[in-house]
């Protein structure tokens, strides 16, 4: 029973990338490159027959690629890359309810408490509304998290914001 609770806690902690909205408003989002504010959002207009435009498809692929870059940076323990892509003020919420600041999360990766080893990502769906994007996908993450080794499947909902032409992760 205790092992089951521990495993559940570890699994819930692995869901770190399931970021939830925090109290800061969209206009208060700040990037790690300075105090750039999130530009106003305007919906991307689609063709009348609801087919995606080529521009929309390209942006969706850019969002997916950006998230894959984050996943690989977690595996590589590339804190500089993570710091560049994840906006300051982002809060990570574990399934257990535990929350971490960006610095706390990076410290756990840096010191090996979170040791990401591989991931697979499928069923990617991106919804873009102006400069805001939401990516949902299915991920199987293999890691040693807080001493428990395993592979855990979960659904990710990641939020990104476009600033000066580039996508950044946020809440």
Concise overview:
The protein is 30% helix and 33% strand. It is α+β, with helices and mostly antiparallel strands.
Helix-strand layout with pairing:
Blueprint: H1 2-14, H2 54-76, H3 79-85, E1 91-93, E2 99-101, H4 102-110, E3 114-129, E4 132-145, E5 148-163, E6 166-170
Antiparallel strand pairs: 1-2, 3-4, 4-5, 5-6
Question: Could you explain the architecture of this structure?
Answer:
- The chain is of the alpha+beta class.
- 30% of the residues lie in helices and 33% in strands.
- The strands form two sheets. The protein has a four-stranded antiparallel sheet with strand order 3-4-5-6, with helices on both faces.
- The N and C termini lie far apart (34 Å).
Estimate the mean pLDDT confidence.
77
Series of secondary-structure elements, N-terminal to C-terminal: HHHEEHEEEE
How many helices? The count is: 4
Unreliable residue runs: 1-49
Report, as a whole number of angstroms, the end-to-end distance.
Answer: 34 Å
Which percent bin holds the helix content? 25-40%
The description of the largest β-sheet is: 4 strands, antiparallel
Coarse morphology:
globular
The count of β-strands is 6
Order of the strands making up the biggest sheet: 3-4-5-6
Q: Beta-sheet strand percentage?
A: 25-35%
What's the oligomerization state?
single chain
Task: Determine Rg (CA atoms, Å).
Answer: 17 Å
Structural class: alpha+beta
């Amino acid at each position: 029973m205790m092992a089951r609770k521990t495993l559940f806690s570890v699994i819930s902690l692995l869901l770190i990338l399931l970021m939830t909205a925090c109290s800061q408003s969209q206009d208060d989002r700040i990037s790690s490159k300075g105090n750039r504010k999130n530009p106003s959002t305007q919906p991307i207009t689609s063709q009348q027959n609801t087919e995606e435009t080529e521009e929309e498809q390209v942006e969706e692929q850019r969002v997916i690629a950006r998230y894959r870059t984050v996943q690989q940076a977690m595996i590589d323990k590339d804190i500089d890359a993570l710091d560049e892509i994840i906006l300051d003020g982002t809060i990570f919420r574990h399934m257990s309810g535990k929350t971490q600041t960006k610095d706390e999360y990076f410290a756990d990766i840096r010191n090996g408490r979170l040791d990401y080893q591989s991931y697979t990502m499928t069923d990617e769906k991106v919804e873009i509304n102006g400069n805001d994007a939401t990516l949902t996908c299915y991920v199987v993450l293999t890691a040693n998290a807080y001493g428990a080794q395993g592979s855990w499947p979960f659904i990710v909902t990641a939020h990104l914001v476009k600033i000066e032409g580039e996508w950044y992760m946020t809440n």
